[in-house]
């Protein structure tokens, strides 16, 4: 799973709640700037997230990778609420959180990759208050 949100929204706080609540079942790959790979072969699209050494203020990084099955667009809220997003609704959020090169040719490639990501994973908007129940909400949404 990927958590996307602007800086200061609570991604690290939410991840810490997950680690506290679920213990060793949770492995954080990168706290700030992971790499995402989108590859297609034989009609299937495979999306993986990779750790990088650029790990932000919390210093959480692991030199590992994992498949991406869902993207959670995290927002602050007073109540824990989740909703599934369609491609049209989700794409601006995703585009806002990825590296956007200035070069027009590279930007076209970035848009294609972002589109494949958005088309091939479940995308949810999560409004949460950062209590432990927010982690359970995400588990419930995925099932």
Quick gist of this model?
The protein has one domain (2-142): 3-Layer(aba) Sandwich (Rossmann fold), CATH 3.40.50. Helices cover 34% and strands 27% of the residues. It contains four helices and seven strands, in the order E-H-E-E-E-E-E-H-H-E-H.
SSE layout:
Blueprint: E1 2-4, H1 11-22, E2 35-41, E3 44-50, E4 65-67, E5 70-76, E6 81-84, H2 87-96, H3 104-120, E7 122-128, H4 133-142
Parallel strand pairs: 1-5, 5-7
Antiparallel strand pairs: 2-3, 3-4, 6-7
Helix pairs in contact: 2-3
Shape type: globular
> What's the N-to-C terminus distance?
13 Å
| Name of the level-1 CATH class | Alpha Beta
Share of residues in strands? 25-35%
Please name the CATH topology: Rossmann fold
CATH architecture: 3-Layer(aba) Sandwich
| Helix-strand topology string | EHEEEEEHHEH
Q: DSSP helix count?
A: 4
Uncertain runs: none
Largest sheet: 4 strands, mixed
* Strand order in the largest sheet: 1-5-7-6
Kindly state the number of beta strands: 7
Kindly report the oligomeric state of this protein.
Answer: single chain
| Helix-residue proportion | 25-40%
Q: Indicate how many domains the architecture comprises.
A: 1
Overall pLDDT confidence: 84
Alpha-beta content class? alpha/beta
Radius of gyration using CA atoms only: 15 Å
Give a verbal description of the structure.
There is one protein chain. The chain has a single domain, classed as Rossmann fold. A four-stranded mixed beta sheet has the order 1-5-7-6, sandwiched between helices. The chain has a three-stranded antiparallel beta sheet with strand order 2-3-4, covered by helices on one side. The longest helix has 17 residues, at about 105-120. It has helices at about 10-20, 85-95, 105-120, 135-140, and strands at about 1-5, 35-40, 45-50, 65, 70-75, 80-85, 120-130. The model has no long low-confidence stretch (mean pLDDT about 85). Helices cover about 35% and strands about 25% of the residues. The protein is built from four helices and seven strands; from the N terminus they run E-H-E-E-E-E-E-H-H-E-H. With about 140 residues, the chain is of the alpha/beta class. The two termini are about 15 Å apart. The chain is globular.
């Amino acid at each position: 799973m990927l958590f996307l949100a602007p800086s200061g929204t609570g991604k690290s706080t939410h991840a810490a709640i997950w680690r506290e609540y679920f213990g060793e079942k949770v492995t954080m790959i990168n706290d700030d700037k992971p790499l995402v790979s989108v590859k297609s072969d034989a009609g299937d699209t495979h999306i993986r997230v990779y750790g990088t050494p650029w790990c932000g203020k919390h210093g959480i990084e692991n030199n590992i990778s994992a498949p991406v099955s869902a993207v959670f667009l995290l927002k602050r809220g007073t109540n824990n609420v989740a909703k599934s997003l369609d491609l049209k609704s989700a794409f601006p959020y995703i585009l806002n959180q990825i590296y956007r090169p200035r070069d027009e040719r590279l930007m076209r490639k970035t848009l294609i990759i972002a589109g494949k990501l958005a088309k091939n994973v479940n995308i949810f908007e999560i409004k949460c208050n950062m209590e432990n129940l927010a982690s359970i909400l995400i588990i419930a949404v995925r099932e």
